[in-house]
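hey so i finally got around to running both of the ones u sent me last week. sorry it took forever, my laptop kept dying halfway thru and i had to restart like 3 times lol. anyway pasting them below in the order u listed, first the sequence line then the structure token line for each. didnt double check formatting much so if smth looks off just lmk and ill redo it

first one:
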Amino acid sequence: MTQHPTQAVILAGGQGSRLRPYTDDRPKPMVEIPGTGVPIIGHQLAWLADEGVTDVVVSSGHLAEVLEEWLGKAELPCRVTTVTEPEPLGRGGGLKFAARSLPRPDEPWYATNGDIWTRFSLREMAAFHAERDATATLALARPRIPWGAVETDQFGHVLDFIEAPPSPYLINAGVYVFARRFAGLLPERGDHERTTFPRLARERALAGYPLPQRSYWRAIDTAKDLTEAAKELAGEHGG
């Protein structure tokens, strides 16, 4: 039986400028999902703990003291360590910096961006990662296009209108499983998605795990995303 990771990194240092005014006085992961009374990071920690994670390293930056104050007062479902980058290191550098504080450097680990609100089986994703002997595995989502689509035939006749169809493309869902060796391949500063990931893809050492159908996934990037998340939550609890 595959041993799933029990440690994770949450990247929580972003400015969240597109979520203003919510992020004027708090970092993005501290924005509350309307109707829950819990910030995004609270949902993430509960999910990680449910999936068997015992230790989380939170990499903070923008308004780090607000995040640290909440973590200090909240009842947390796992052990949480916060690290603050001495200067902006980029996502790849931030991951490498945070990974140095993982309690078990010789074991695999999960990572997630601090603005992702999702629920799916991380254990199944870890098994997928192990089966492929991948160095890194990223979760893949198929988001809905925010506009209505128009379907036409070859002669230019409109056949149908489709409201918010699923994208034909899979996107990086911002949740990862990393092998022990991955941290050593990260840049000291800069973006791993432009350096480390393309290199691993060329070596066929990067795997993509499509989120199971009907899995809940949303990146909380704008005020509209918060509104949509609240609607979806109300629909789930109401129906």
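and the second one:
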Amino acid sequence: MPFEADPTVVSNFVSSEMRSEIAAMPPWLRQRGIGKASEISTVQRIIKQRQIHTICEEGRCPNRGECYSQKTATFLLMGPTCTRACAFCQVDKGHAPMPLDPQEPQKVAESVQLLGLRYVVLTSVARDDLPDGGAGWFVATMEAIRQLNPATQIEVLTPDFGGGQGDSEISPEEKQYRRVATVVKAKPACYNHNIETVRRLQNPVRRGAKYDRSLQVLRIVKNLDQNIPTKSGLMLGHGETEAEIMEAMTDLRAVGCDRITLGQYLRPSLEHLPVQKYWTPEEFARLGAIAQELGFSHVRSGPLVRSSYHAGE
């Protein structure tokens, strides 16, 4: 008779292992709370009522209470299921995401109005199943927000738009160009696309993504409209070296990237990549200073910094 593990024992073991990993975190990652519970519960209630999603909640961002109190939030468009399988990300993965909700742009716009948000970041899961990769959905949501909230600034954090369906006679490069151009034409306050990690670690960390393809997103934006600020970010702790980080920052500046965020990768579960290194606050400060020397106009560098951290500034 085959051995069958007791689910309770397995669950307790997993919980114990994860608790041990959390306990091993350095103090600068454990000492900070997630913000006011009242701010978080208000946003959670509104998004739950409208059946929409925020990356703040899906990714359990440690800064969400602080951002909510500053009237900033990041909405996750096109459902909570991603067609990619990045090994660091907590968002659900699957090859058959839910159909688009035709009311989602309006629901997001109403939520922005109810919450009195002054600055909104729109991001999305990768939707390689859609003909345009979801580019048109970003624009539709931006238009809906502006109709109800004309004073609210909108930043976009898009996928690389490199996969997906569409006209088979068009090259992948041309598809990507057209999709990025669709979003650029809508004039976001900032166009963000994260390279996430250094060139050497792209394959194990960002499955389905490519380093040069991500750089190309930022290059296209600047080629189309020099006045739109561009931004990118890296999550440190996957085994990268300081020299590789500097190389990545140099590559970003070479395509005209204006802003950068550097934060610590935290393992969401035992199914995700383990943390290879916890970078210290002092190391983050030094890397931030290097980023400023390289010419980035806005730099956010710290263990708990995330892509949309203080985005409204």
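quick thing i noticed on the 2nd:
The longest strand covers residues 230-236.
anyway thats it, ttyl
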